[in-house]
Amino acid sequence: MKQFNKEVFKDAWHLIKPYWVSSEKKTAYILLAAIIFLNLAIVFINVLFNLWYKEFYNALQALDEKAFWIALGQFTALAFFYIISAVYSLYLNQMLQIKWRRWLTDNFLDKWMDKKIYYHLQVFNHQTDNPDQRISEDLNMFISQSLSLSLGLLSSIVTLFSFISILWIVSGPLHFSVFGYLITIPGYMVWAALLYAIVGTWITAIIGRPLIPLNFNQQRFEADFRFNLVRIRENSESVALYSGEEKEHKHLMRNFADIFENYWKIMVRQKKLTWFTSGYNQIAIIFPILVAAPRFFAKKIQLGGLMQIAQAFGQVQTSLSYIVNSYTSLAAWHAVADRLRTFEHNIESIKALQSSNNNIKYKQSDFLSVKNLSIMLPNNQTYLIKDLSFELKPTQSLLIVGPSGIGKSTLIRTIAGLWPFGSGEIELPPKEKTLFLPQKPYLPIGTLRDVLIYPNGDPSIDNDILKELLVSLNLKYLTKHLLDNNVWSQVLSLGEQQYIAFGRIFLQKPEWIFMDEATSALDEKSERLLYMRLFSELPQSACLSVGHRSSLLNYHKIKLSLLGEGKWSLEPIKKDDSKRVSYLKEEFA
C-alpha cells in the first residue's frame, strides 16, 4: 500500500482532471469560484472577528457600557454575514459534488461496460473486488473528500497569511538573556506556532500512517460482506431448499469477522491519534495565553490585546496544523483514491489483454460466416477449437453438440465477441438483428413488461399484446402482474424464465437467434412447442443452438460436433426439411 508520496497525488489528479476539462467544465468552474469566494469571505469575517475581540474585551475591562453595546451590534452583523456565507458555501459545495459525481459515475460506467470489460474483469481479473461498490460509494467519497480537503487546505493557507501578520504585530518581540547576551526574537508567537505545528504534524504522521491500509481494507471487507448478503437474497430459494441457513450464517459471520477485526485495528489506531491530537489542540488553547500573560500582568497589553493574541495564535496554529487535524480524513481519502485507481488500472489491463489477444477479426455481414477460427484457453496454447469454418444463412439452423466442458458455450461467447483468446475471422449480422439466449436468462429488476421487452423490444407495445404472449407461453397467471415491480429472477422458476426468453424472440423477431441450452429447464414437449412456433412465426430467421438432448436434432439442419483437442466435425442432420416439419406438426398436434 502506497503512503503519501508524489505517485499518490499523481494518481488522484488522474481521477480529478477529466471532469474539469469536460463539457461541464464551465458550470464546474463557476460553482468552484463561488465556493472559493464564500470561503474567502468566511476567512475575512474571521479577521474582523479577531479585531472585534480586542474592542469587546477592552470595553468589558473598562466597564464601558456604550462600547459594549456597540460591539454587540457589530457582532450581530458579522454573525449574520458569516451564517449566510456558511450556508451557501455548503449548498454550492453539495451542488458541485452531485454534478461531479453524476459525470464521473457516467465516465466510470462507460469504461467498465465498454467492450464487455465488466464481463472480462470478472472472468479474467480477480483483483477487482466489488466494482459496484467502487462506482457507487468510492466515487462519492472521493469527490466529497477531495473537495472538503482541498477547500480546507485553501482556507488554511488564506487564514495563515491573513492572521500571521496580525500575530506578528500584536505578540511583539521576546527579549531574554543567554550567558549575558541579550537575544530578541521579533514576532515570537509566530515562531512558537510554527514550531508547535511542525512537531505536531511529524508525530501525527507517525501515529496515523497505518490508517491508510486499514481504511483500504475496511472498504473491501464491507463490500464483500454486502455482496454475500445480496447473493443470499438472489439465491434465497436454493438456500432454503438446501436448508443451508446455518452454513450461510457461519459464512456471513466469517465475513463480518474481517470487518470486526479490521475496524478494531482502526479504533485502536484512531484512539492513539485522538489522544495526541486532542491534547495537542487543548494545549494550543492555553499556550498563547500563558506566553502572553507576563505582558498582560505587566500592563503592557490590555485584556482585549491578550484575547486578540490568543485568537490570532489559534488561527495561525490551526492553519499550520492542517495535516494534524485532517489526517484521519486524508487517510480515508488516500484509501478511496487507491481503490479507484486500482479499478482503473485493472480496466486498462483488461484493455491490454483484449488488444494483445485481438487476433479474431470481426466484420459485419448479411449472414454468419466463421473462417479458420481457433479458440484457446487464456494464457496458454491449449486449443478448444482449431481452424473451424462454417456458414449459416437465413432459414438455416445449426446445432452444436459435444461433451460438457468441451467448448460449446465458449464458441457462442466467441461469436458474441466475449472471448478474445484465439484467431480467425467472424462475419456477423448487425447486433440489432441478433438475439443471444443464455441458459439462465437475464431478467432486469422492474416490471414484468420491462422484462419482456428487454433489451430491444418496442417500448410502446400494447399491454394486451404482452398479455396474449404470456397466455400463449402457458404463463397466464402472470398477466395480472404485468405492471408489478419485482425481482423476477427470484419469483420465476428457471423454466418460466426460459419461456420469457423465448417470448422475447416472438416479440422482437430477430433474424439471427443464438441459444445456449436455452430450453434445458423445459420438458421435451414444451421444447418442441417452442421450436415449432419459432419456425412458424420466424421462417426466415437463422437459428444456432447449443444443447445436449438428442431431441434437438429434430429441429436443426446442420450439426457441429466438438470432439476435443481442437477437433470438430460438421455434417448435415439426416432428416430432410419436409420430414422434419411433418414430425413437428405431429408432435405439435
TrEMBL record:
GO terms for molecular function: ABC-type transporter activity; ATP binding; ATP hydrolysis activity. It is found in: Cell membrane. Keywords: ATP-binding, Membrane, Nucleotide-binding, Transmembrane, Transmembrane helix, Transport. One of its GO terms (cellular component) is plasma membrane. It is a multi-pass membrane protein. Residues 33-332 form the ABC transmembrane type-1 domain. It comes from the Bacteria. The keyword Isomerase does not apply. It holds the Pfam family ABC_tran. InterPro entries: AAA+_ATPase, ABC1_TM_dom, ABC1_TM_sf, ABC_transporter-like_ATP-bd, ABC_transporter_sub-D, P-loop_NTPase. The chain crosses the membrane at residues 27-49, 69-92, 149-170, 190-212, 273-293. Residues 368-589 form the ABC transporter domain. Its main location: membrane. This is Putative ATP-binding cassette transporter.
